[in-house]
Amino acid sequence: MSHSPSINTTEKADNAARTTPFDTLLVANRGEIACRVMRTARRMGLKTVAVYSDADASARHVREADEAVRLGPAAARESYLNIGAVIDAAKRTGTGAIHPGYGFLSENGSFVKALEEAGITFVGPPASAIAAMGDKSAAKARMANAGVPLVPGYHGDDQDDTLLRSEADRIGYPVMLKASAGGGGKGMRVVESGDGFQAALDGCRRESKAAFGDDRMLIEKYLVQPRHVEVQVFCDRHGNGVYLFERDCSVQRRHQKVIEEAPAPGMTAELRSAMGDAAVRAAKEIGYVGAGTVEFLLDADGSFYFMEMNTRLQVEHPVTEMITGQDLVEWQLRVAMGERLPCHQDELAITGHSFEARIYAEDPDQDFIPATGLLTRFALDLEGAGLNADQVRLDSGVESGDAVSMHYDPMLAKLIVHGPDRDAALATLNRALAALDVQGVVTNRAFLMRLATHPGFKNVELDTRFIERNEATLFAPRTYSREDYASAALIGLHQLAQECESDSPWDRHDGFRLNAPHTIRIALCDPASAQAPDSDEAVVIVEGKRNAGESLWNLTINDETLTASLQPLTGDAVAVTLNGHRQRLQARRDGHVVIMADPSGETRLFWRRIDAIDHGHHEAESTLTAPMNGTVVALLVEPGIAVEKGMPLMVMEAMKMEHTMTAPADGSVEIFHFQAGDTVSQGAVLLDFAANE
Q1: What digits encode the pLDDT tens for the residues 306-355?
Q2: What is the domain partition of the chain in residue ranges?
């Protein structure tokens, strides 16, 4: 059975006549979701129209569209969030319908009303349904009326700080502060005690105001070890509704999902049916049409509570497609055309298991700071990893040569896998992550591999604080084997030789000697300690020769000698053989860092020749510079005021998330070089700091 998404071919006579036909579809979004929607639309015979900002003029979704229209400058509020510009683009291109993707205008009731007035079909629910769920406080009341179980909390209109604090005290800590108009992890904080309540409230309000133009908050009891399980629902205009089973999205960071899977592990048939029925009941309560997701918190005792409903297609919808064999975007388009749902509930079934890992341009080792730059390479070597398109799907909005800017969400792609059961799917995920080659921009791939190979994840020890609970092991200092050092030494040496375009032996960098064996001394260490004066280095002495295109070596590490060879394979893959043990690796060198990956994880080692010019170690100075391109949100202290090490000094925003800059030592700020609202570039000096003597 193929697990590529497809529409159910059951014939339904009442679908023959479409009540709202259209032949041109505009996608009011960017990135991988825009590419995904246009791909399905073209398969259905529709003409596709892309919209773009100045930052996306040459983006992949623009290149793949039949037509494309510029919206405005890079800032989202002047382009992708500009309702007038989007509607004007639709009118200029004769567009009959608009698909919003997710994010931006996808849950904007004003946008839907404007489309209705313009006579353009919105591929999504009516404005009334968006309004019903967009205000999370009002939504809780509607769900209570529909008999959907709720988490204890405060969802009222009174937003006085003192009242909110008293409600949090009444509910009992820990509590969750959430933006009433929000979603996607924006404007959310867990508050452990009353002491931190006001600071958390202020931060949530700033994020919510910036992201949604609304700073109202709601408060809910924070369940200590719940799972985040959501149900995919679909409704048509004829009163029909179904659920396409559930997804477990428990593995999160800052309330943003990292790895999702379907079906949720450990679900009984009774619990699945109860949650599915509750989700459909919630959708029908608000007159829902199209694809929606009802999110629940699932407690350890099997109790579940309504959290919110996302009135759009979710980022993680591909895992549902993989286990059901349905194309949810095609469902959306057919429902928007006025057709009935392609399937009844009893026609839907689960086949196998699926995972989705979100590939972000961010640096997990630097507190997940967003990364920008040029993607010099973006490729997935399925054949080399022994995988195929039925097992692995890569939904991407970028290609090699594309630029990653500071202006939008840092997600580059989604890696989706399928297997006959959870263990098989997880093994495929690890192989696929190892086969993914991204160069030029730092990503979270290594972190995803640590998550996917973690014993707790494999054993389904899941809850929404999984990453926090396992922080010590997920971010533990890496230990290296002699095989790691040996492989990295050879790979770095091989790639150094490959960079030499000359055939002259005088230009070679691989230790060539005219009448003696190649002899090279290589030092390797953890990249994080490479600049420290007392870094713990391993020294590898390499002696060898070339034989019929294969490098043969003797490697000495701590007085132990290994026989070794290295054979280049396709792409960046190499085969390293150590003492007769051959291993296939995806390997490359990024500056002085050798990066090696296999299904067990990723290894990085700083590589340098110590028989060549040794530039020595340089102790890094502690300076407070911008860690990424972004905007200054707030200055938190006055210049000249004494501060302690770790105290918050200023807040920056990048890619829709806030980042707090803290004092590097006890001392004081002499001067801030930027004010709130200023745009700063990565590496810019934010302030002058005077440390105490």
Answers
A1: 989 999 999 999 999 999 999 999 999 999 999 999 999 999 999 999 99
A2: 17-131, 152-221, 230-247+267-356+363-474, 482-609, 630-691
Kindly list the strands in the beta sheet with 47-53, ordered across the sheet, starting from the edge strand earlier in the chain: 67-72, 47-53, 24-27, 97-99, 121-122
The model carries a pTM of 0.78
With contact defined as beta carbons under 8 Å apart, do 198 and 164 qualify?
no
Do 487 and 577 contact (CB within 8 A), yes or no? no
Q: How far apart are CA 348 and CA 362, in angstroms?
A: 38
Evaluate whether the domain defined by 17-131 bears CATH number 3.40.50.12160: no
Catalytic, 312? Answer yes
Chain segment 350-395, per-residue pLDDT in tens: 999 999 999 999 999 888 888 999 999 999 989 888 999 999 999 9
Name the architecture of domain 152-221: 2-Layer Sandwich (3.30)
**Which residue out of 36, 247, 312, 589 is catalytically annotated?**
312
Report the C-alpha gap between 33 and 362 in whole angstroms: 19
Please state which CATH class domain 482-609 belongs to: alpha beta
Q: What is the pLDDT of residues 226-273, one digit of tens each?
A: 899 999 999 999 999 999 999 999 999 888 899 999 999 999 999 999
R_g of the chain, CA atoms, integer Å: 27
CATH number of 630-691: 2.40.50.100
What is the spatial order of strands in the sheet that 217-221 belongs to?
153-154, 217-221, 175-179, 188-191
Residues 6+ apart with CB under 8 A from 212: 179, 181, 182, 186, 187
